[in-house]
Amino acid sequence: MAADEIRGDEIRGAAQGSAPVPLSVLDLVTVGAGRTASDALRTSVDLARLAEARGFHRYWVAEHHSMPGVASSSPAVILAHLAAHTDRIRLGSGGVMLPNHAPLVIAEQFGTLEAMAPGRVDLGLGRAPGTDGATAAALRRTDLPHSQLRSSGGTPSHSGADDFPEQLAELTRFLDDDFPDGHRYRRIHAVPGPVQATSPGGVQSPHRPPIWLLGSSGFSARLAGVLGLPFAFAHHFSAQNTVPALDLYRESFQPSAVLDRPYALIGVSALAADEEKEARRQVLAAALSMVRLRTGRPGLVPSPEEAAAYEFSPMERDFVDSWNANVIHGTPDEVRSGLDDLAKRTGADELMITANAHGGDVRVRSYELIADAYGLPTPA
After folding, report:
1. Strand partners of residue 125
2. Is-contact 358 306, C-beta < 8 A?
3. pTM passes above 0.85
4. What mean pLDDT value characterizes the chain?
5. Which are the contacts of 119, defined by CB distance < 8 A and separation ≥ 6?
6. Residue 294 near residue 287, CB atoms below 8 Å
7. pLDDT at 294 exceeding the cut of 70
8. 329 pairs with which residues across the strands?
């Protein structure tokens, strides 16, 4: 659908139970040590079904590359799989990293998803690569020599992030099929898409997924505001920037055909367990996984037993303490209190919860406990 046909109610959710705002799910499709990617994807299906049954508003997956413990390198493929196992919940990308892809390819992929799950697909876009610079170069088939990549820290000079607004504009025109006369892409159409509705005998719905901008700093916050688009902020790994970015988004916001007022969700790490001690064990294992990632040793998510036996250096311990300070964890009541406080402190319109743990059963249980704590709907 063209931008003037996107309704704000396709973006805004409704809080369920006693939750202060709509609750949603961000899935990184994490793979634990001793588990397979197939195991992780089966957990994603279980989580999506649970989220739908319990009244979570949307379910997003995030694009990452070259990380053994994160099996979400192909969001569109995963979303197609989830669409086949759900009926109502909104599905989307949190996000697709636009500089990694030709805009036409994304328009085709998400047009296909929209045809599979009409009226419940979101297209969240980020400007970071979702990986390291060398992997980004491999994704984009840059011709920059490897020696030059190394000397520049692994990031090619024409990485694509700097021309994100231009890429976004091109993608939007492919989605709306409205390149002006004389444009080099005027006769190119993203299919499935609106062109099918204007072809002779065409009955294809012109609907298209709403675009969200994602960010962890001010750039996308400002751009989303200027364009009047919904905004998603990565509080779960950039907590110190959350309030400034949301303030910038709201200050920059200009009403559009998409939204008449700002709408911002934030991603938040949260893990609930039946006992506080167990929650601490689980988040320590996830933090060890982040230690290894940040020090160039990405791997599978370690088990709580491995994390408990690991000898953290003082520097690593400082990182773990800092990281886990922004992970809301504990009993269901403790997690509910933490989420309530975060919603109040940031003024976020929606909380998107990501639960990182070694075992899929732990993640599923966490969302069940959070749903129970807020009195979210239970299946009939």
Report:
1. 96, 213
2. no
3. yes
4. 91
5. 10, 207
6. no
7. yes
8. 271
Contact between residue 229 and residue 260 where contact means Cβ atoms under 8 Å apart:
no
Strand partners, 97: 126
For residue 312, give both structure tokens. Answer: 């953290």
Flag whether pLDDT at 27 surpasses 50.
yes
Longest dimension (CA), the chain: 69
Task: Examine residue 192 and say whether the peptide bond preceding it is cis (omega within 30 degrees of 0).
Answer: yes
Q: What CA–CA distance (Å, rounded) separates 344 from 301?
A: 32
What separation in angstroms does the CA of 173 have from each of 1, 25, 120, 297, 346? 11, 29, 20, 40, 33
Q: At what angle do helices 332-346 and 360-373 cross, to 10 degrees?
A: 70
Give CA–CA dist 114/190, Å, rounded. 12
Residues constituting the chain: 380
Angle, CA of 312, 316 and 321, to the nearest 5° = 100
Question: Do 99 and 140 form a contact (C-beta atoms < 8 A)?
Answer: yes
Residues contacting 248, CB < 8 A, separation 6+: 218, 221, 222, 225
**Cα 256 to Cα 43: distance, rounded to the nearest angstrom:** 38
* Least confident among 138-142, 272-276, 284-288: 138-142
- What is the rounded CA–CA span in Å between residue 272 and residue 268? 13
φ and ψ of 275, to 5 deg: -130, 145
